[in-house]
Fold this protein.
Amino acid sequence: NAGVTQTPKFQVLKTGQSMTLQCAQDMNHNSMYWYRQDPGMGLRLIYYSASEGTTDKGEVPNGYNVSRLNKREFSLRLESAAPSQTSVYFCASTPTSNSGNTIYFGEGSWLTVV
Amino acid sequence: GDSVTQMEGPVTLSEEAFLTINCTYTATGYPSLFWYVQYPGEGLQLLLKATKADDKGSNKGFEATYRKETTSFHLEKGSVQVSDSAVYFCALRRSGTYKYIFGTGTRLKVLA
């Protein structure tokens, strides 16, 4: 009954360090997403993958890269972390292209860049 | 572009009070509309949804009606409980796109 699993749950980075957030879903969903959540800003889309083999930019892609490794996994990479990337990151997935589909979220990854 | 506007919080109510959280949207066509809830330290989970005009979504005593004429999807509950304390997000997804657009969230605090 795992759903969407993200790792790590907490991470502290120094400015300039790199890291990858991992995400996997076991629901056989086609589409996957990365959002960031900041106080007063709600959820903002960083990147999404409509289907295996495709990725597209969202609202706030600068400073991030993604990889859709296979149908299950979608990773988010910070190449050179900046304090402005301190945030809570959520991975999510949805089954098909139907706009009425529910989007399912992981539990979040708390990232602090000092 | 598509957008969702929610009333700012926090909203503080006494137990058993009536709740309304306003949500309006801007989008072309007929998007699907959603309410998600986030409890402290957790991810978002679906509360209810509506996929066409005049549909009413409902779950756990919460309701919202898709009003195309006023581009609104207001969340209501007749009698809130302390356990309803959380952050509530309104969202939309337009047909033919993959993006879910979220509002900024409204924090609800219910006092015993």
